[in-house]
Amino acid sequence: MVIHLVFTFSIALPIQITKLLRSGSLRVEDIPNTIVNLPVAIENLHASTSVPIEFNPIAMDTPQGSEAEFIVKYRQEYYDLSKFMHKHPGGINTLKGLNQADMTARFMKAPPHSDAAMYLMKEYKVKPEDTRVPKTKARHQARRVDNGQDSQEQEQHQPREPEDKNNNQLDESMEHLVDWSKAMLPQIANITTCYDEWVHKPVDRPLRLFGPWYLEMLTKTPWWLVPTFWIPVIMWCAWEDIYSSWQDKSQLALFIGYFLFGVLLWTFLEYTLHRWVFHIKLKSNSGPWICTFHFMIHGLHHKVPFDPMRLVFPPLPGAFLAMLIYTPLSYFLIQPRIVLSGALAGYLCYDMMHYYLHYGNPSFRHIVHMKRYHYQHHFTHQDLGYGISSPLWDVVFKTRIHLRKLKYQLRWS
Questions:
Q1: Based on the domain organization, do 79 and 198 belong to the same domain?
Q2: Sheet with 101-102, edge to edge strand ranges
Q3: 86 labelled as ligand-binding?
Q4: Is 369 annotated as a binding residue?
Q5: Domain boundary among 134, 153, 187
Q6: Annotation-wise, does 301 bind a ligand?
Q7: 366: annotated binding-site residue?
Q8: Residue 140 marked as a ligand binder
Q9: What is the pTM of this model?
């Protein structure tokens, strides 16, 4: 997985930048900023460059030269899903045939969408006066492409129902409670009575956490900075013990055992922190400080789950927390440095996997399962599915999310 990401950023990105320079879509003076913001650059490249047809089942339904637009009709409203397609929790191939189509019938027959998903949908709504809105009816009623249920075509027009069981009634927006053009963290104290409800209604828009630029800069972390920082630290912690035990098989076996124990220890810390710290129970009378703290450490990730610069933990605060946890444990553990190196290796895999689950296109069955599992945690079961790198402790503590079986493989690019 990590090798695939390194290949993408070291080889594919320069090729795409060259293409954009030749086409005039990118200026030479903008290249440094593009490289610094690699995850954002990749997201933009997904939206601005065409994908080979053999890997994109939607390309057949998109007119040539209009890859940047993917307009669908739901009920009486239109939505531009072009920037959402590769983020769609249900995969990009489930949207096949929907471009310039009325998706109402298929949507109502599909497995139910959560309230959070319906709230997020409003982010892509196109205003009636927008030139992208067709002046005539959608070209066809989209065929139903279901995954996990019996497939069936919807040829006849479905009568509009006032209510149904698929959450088709969109929630009233709560975004008027805050000013998205200003720093968000100081505003949390003003919405404490409804903070817990608001923070679990996701949006897809830029978020500024702090006012001063130098503080805001510290909250954004490109994914590649995490392995760049932590791999040398892990090697430094483990090198002396690796060197001393390399010639002794019994010592080497002990080293591997302590290292793997450190990895297992991390998975437990990952679960406990995610469940009892990041998802601390908040009420309408929770104080402004606890709400602000929650938003800063995890709430912002649930509010803007697609922000590519806030999917991994900044290294410096991470190092501080690592020392805070390691110091008391070092008095009780045997070979604490080896255990620490294993725990940090587990953390590194967790952070890389978390980024990949949001922006990767996995093909291995287990990673596909974990991506679906994590998206269920975001959009449906915020009180379940706390394991990200592994569902082990969800099974132990009975917070596991049970996913339905799929009839075909999901893809996200």
A1: no
A2: 101-102, 71-74, 77-80, 125-126
A3: no
A4: no
A5: 134
A6: yes
A7: no
A8: no
A9: 0.76
